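Q: How would the structure tokens look for this protein?
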Amino acid sequence: MSHTERGEKTVSQERRTALKIITSISFIVSLGSLASLLKSISPVVLEIPEWPRVRLANINGIKLRTWYLFSYPTKDIPCLLVKTGKSLPSGVGPDRDIIAYVMICQHARYYGTIYIPPKEVRDPEKLTYLKTVPPNILELYPDKNLLYCPAHAGIYDLEKDGEVLAGPPFCSLCKVVLEYDEASGDIYAVGLSPPAPAVPGVTQCSNNPEELKRIMLGKKLVTEASLEEKI
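A: Here is the predicted structure in token form.
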């Protein structure tokens, strides 16, 4: 074999070696790109947050049998707080008579539910919002604090864990868990208690506390709240 032929053979071998190296590097780079692509299209697993602890008001600013509105745990979840004037197993405060619930009806996700106080103070002239409630409804359950849904006449007992008294709702109301600070007199919202409310993202009426937490997924949680008095 001539020097020229040996030189050409050597060059060919070097080219093949170089091509192998380039091919190997390209393959490794391709694997890295594929891994990045797969990671980008893989479903993102969202971590379920803990319930926010939010101050609502001081005990001295809460009137008896008055309807207060607030949002919790996200801005799109309407809730109400009431000082019922009756000591309740789930009530908080010095008299254990303050309760709170998610206001969404458990029948057809209606958000316009209405608080009805006991009959002795059911005066539509003073509580103007009661003018939207049919007179026959105002005559029902005279001694109770109620939540009324005008969509399909669902009625809930706020004194008995939001239990359904009448109408088509599938289950009781979702409770807002309250915490009372005896030293300061402040009242806090610290979570929700099953059954789950009728909102997207959770199984309506589920009694699973972890399922209920899904109500917060992908949403901005409230960090502060104030009570709005309804008159």
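The two ends are 107 Å apart (CA to CA).

The chain has two domains: 1-42, 54-230.

Upvote if useful.
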